[in-house]
Write a structure and sequence with these properties.
heterodimer, A: 263 residues, mainly alpha, 73% helix, B: 454 residues, alpha/beta, six-stranded mixed β-sheet, 14 helices, 19 strands, 30% helix, 27% strand, globular
Chain lengths: 263, 454
């Protein structure tokens, strides 16, 4: 997930509009509770993401991520849903079936758990798509500028944008460490192998990231970074930003009202 | 421009000062090279001049440092940055913005200059550094040399009178180093004062007015010298049996863009071979093919009598070391690190022998990441050697090492080759290449020369 150098409607919006839209989305993700309202929110966010005209490869990655989130959350919630009332749609072990049954309290797949898992997944996927749409359509320096003009301290904004820039570097490094483990004969196959690889991945990755962070911090110090800056880049709030924010605000109110009046 | 009088500095918790009784003057427009082994105090010396000591690194100091009439300890970093600009070793960690022109503006923005002034300085700096045509390029698409030029350009735009370079060309290839030489020459022509700290400084000697040698935090030499260290002996192990055979190897990452083309090569057991060439010449790709990490698109490959080997089939037979040793040190202690690989091959004895080879016996219980850079590199090499592979492949093993660590590393490699091991390493550095038995030079994916080292 990194900035796409394109000319789309989303790219032309002022970063401040996109940050405000992100905040509206975050409020809706927390406030909305009914399946239809959350589904409508998800559809809206999906449409916003589609405005980016992402590459086929990006779409594939997003679909795999969303499908994984849906499957994992629905199945895990289906099994571990503890609130009443709950309806078992498939029972694997009853509480009465011997010692295992009494220890576990029975193992079953619950309808309410699956629905709850689906709603949580809608929330998660909406958040993921919305943040991806903002990051992929906003040049990091403009994002920093937008956050600054909305009152986010410059240092925090700077940390966010530098993190975005260094994320691919970190991923490259993790890949090299995993490869180095294999070359030293570490068996990384299977679930146990995966845990083993993870155990030996973290120390060098963390230590090297800290070394990199120190180097970057020193480079920022000698370039007089204190958090206060003037800037060459300028943000312009255009009519399309007002219109977009107007529509977003109206949509937000309508979704909340719809939830309030629906049974 | 710079005056230092009886200056000493000690880091917190240390008994021995990092700098001791330094007295020195550097004139405006002078170019000074600072050299010395790792731990001799070179970086500390720079930090005292550019204000990172005491503003970022605390410690106790005595004596006086004055820079263009003021004491760096009494002036905020933002003010010091108007007089002194510092460029560090790693170009990657000095680039903050996604576009070249934004990165050049970054320092000026921090100086709170007005927008028009920033644009004027930015454009002048981009032209001066030859980056004008790349101004809209995304920074991650630049080569190492271009990134380092960008870091210097960003500093240049801030308008300092003094430029300090802390091992700026360690990560650069031949053309990157040539670019840097031209930059130094241009900065000198502009009357800038230059303080250059560099391990591999031979190329820059003609541009320097003075050389300062530090040892144990003290100045042991302050003057001009043309002495260049002579490389250690090149191994002359006679070729015996074939270790590697490549015939007609071709490789690409993207269809139609060959990274390697028509590579034919034979390497015998006991040879030490240096692979040379600029960035993008295909060195690392070739090393990865030899290590079984990449499979060639075309051609025949035989490694230690295994035809068309896979990564799995070469584990334990071929040792591979990436450029950054820190990515390859996983264990909690030095001893555990050495046995990490061979214990997985069912062999649980021998760590003492390799601790001796690495010269780390007294540090066996230390965490590997707390060792010095040179010691970490030696440990990474010896940990791979401990698996007793027939071939050792090293990607830029001398990067960032001082001459002492270099010689230690090569003495370990010579002993390994004397026992029939084959070493292939890539390097930008011609002095490191001269320590090999044979040098193969790549250019745009093809072998353009294959000669015995003299």
């Amino acid at each position: 997930m990194k900035y796409l150098d394109k000319e789309t409607f989303l790219h032309r919006l002022d970063p401040r509009s996109k940050i405000v839209m992100g905040l509206m989305g975050a409020i809706l993700i927390v406030v909305l509770k009914t399946p239809i309202a959350l589904f409508l929110l998800f559809l809206t966010v999906l449409t916003i993401f589609a405005l980016l005209r992402p590459a086929r490869r990006t779409c594939r990655t997003i679909i795999v991520l969303m499908a994984t989130a849906f499957c994992f959350t629905m199945i895990s919630q289906g099994f571990f849903y503890a609130l009443e009332p709950r309806t078992a749609i498939m029972t694997f072990l009853t509480p009465e079936s011997g010692m295992m049954g009494s220890i576990t309290g029975g193992i079953a797949l619950y309808r309410e758990g699956i629905i709850y898992g689906a709603l949580q997944s809608l929330r998660l996927c909406s958040a993921m798509l919305l943040s991806a749409a903002i990051v992929m359509s906003t040049y990091p320096a403009d994002l920093l500028l937008g956050m600054g003009s909305l009152g986010v301290p410059e240092r925090i904004g700077f940390v966010v944008t530098v993190s975005i820039r260094f994320l691919p570097v970190l991923l490259d490094e993790a890949q090299r460490i995993l490869l180095a483990q294999k070359l030293r004969g570490l068996n990384t196959k299977g679930v146990r192998g995966g845990f083993r690889a993870f155990r030996y991945l973290l120390p060098p990755l963390i230590i090297d990231s800290l070394r990199n962070a120190r180097r970057t911090a020193l480079a920022a110090e000698v370039r007089a970074f204190t958090g206060k800056r003037t800037t060459v880049r300028e943000l312009r709030f255009a009519v399309r930003d007002w219109v977009t924010l107007g529509f977003s605000g109206a949509g937000m109110i309508m979704l909340i009202l719809y939830q309030a009046v629906s049974p | 421009m710079i005056t230092i009088d009886s200056f000493s500095f000690t880091y917190p918790g240390m008994e021995v000062p990092a700098l001791q009784d330094i007295s020195l003057g550097i004139e405006s427009g002078e170019a000074v090279l600072v050299r010395g082994a790792s731990g001799s105090g070179k970086s500390t010396f720079l930090y005292c001049l550019n204000g990172l000591i005491p503003h970022v690194f605390a410690g106790s100091s005595v004596g006086v440092v004055r820079l263009n009439g003021f004491a760096p300890s009494e002036v905020p970093l933002r003010e010091i940055a108007k007089t002194v600009g510092t460029v560090f070793q790693n170009p990657e960690s000095q680039v903050f913005m996604m576009r070249v022109e934004d990165d050049v503006s970054f320092g000026c923005e921090n100086l709170l200059l007005p927008r028009e002034e920033i644009i004027r300085r930015r454009d002048e700096s981009l032209r001066f550094m030859g980056l004008w045509d790349l101004r809209r390029r995304e920074t991650f698409k630049l080569s190492g040399g271009q990134k380092q030029r960008l870091a210097i350009s960003s500093i240049y735009a801030m308008g300092p009178k003094v430029f300090m370079f802390d091992e700026p060309t360690t990560d650069l290839d031949g053309s990157g180093r040539q670019e840097f030489k031209n930059i130094i020459r241009n900065l000198k022509d502009k009357g800038k004062t230059i303080v250059l700290v560099e391990h591999q400084y031979e190329d820059y000697l003609p541009l320097m007015d003075r050389i300062i040698t530090l040892e144990g935090g003290r100045i042991v030499n302050n003057g001009m010298t043309t002495e260049v260290p002579t490389p250690a002996r090149a191994t002359t192990a006679p070729p015996t049996r074939r270790a590697i055979s490549l015939k007609g190897i071709r490789f690409d990452y993207e269809r139609g863009k060959n990274v390697l083309e028509n590579i034919d090569m034979e390497i015998q057991r006991g040879e030490i071979v240096a692979l040379r060439g600029d960035n993008g010449s295909g060195k690392t790709t070739l090393l990865k093919i030899l290590g079984g990490i990449l499979k060639p698109i075309e051609g025949q490959i035989t490694i230690l009598d295994i035809p068309a080997p896979t990564l799995e089939s070469l584990v334990g037979r071929v040792g591979f070391l990436f450029q950054n040793p820190d990515e390859q040190l996983f264990a909690q202690t030095v001893e555990e690190e050495i046995s990490f690989g061979f214990s997985r091959l069912g062999n649980n004895e021998g760590s003492d022998r390799y601790l001796d080879i690495a010269g780390l016996n007294t540090l066996r219980h230390r965490h590997p990441q707390t060792l010095s850079r040179g010691q970490r590199q030696i440990l990474a090499v010896v940990s791979v050697m401990a698996m007793e592979p027939g071939i050792l492949i090293l990607d830029e093993p001398t990067t960032g090492l001082d001459s002492g660590s270099w010689h230690k590393l090569f003495s370990v490699l010579y002993d390994y080759a004397d026992q029939g091991g084959t070493v292939i390493f890539s390097t930008h550095n011609e002095h490191a290449a001269a320590m090999s038995y044979r040098q193969i030079v790549l250019n745009e994916g093809r072998i353009i020369s294959d000669e015995i080292s003299r």
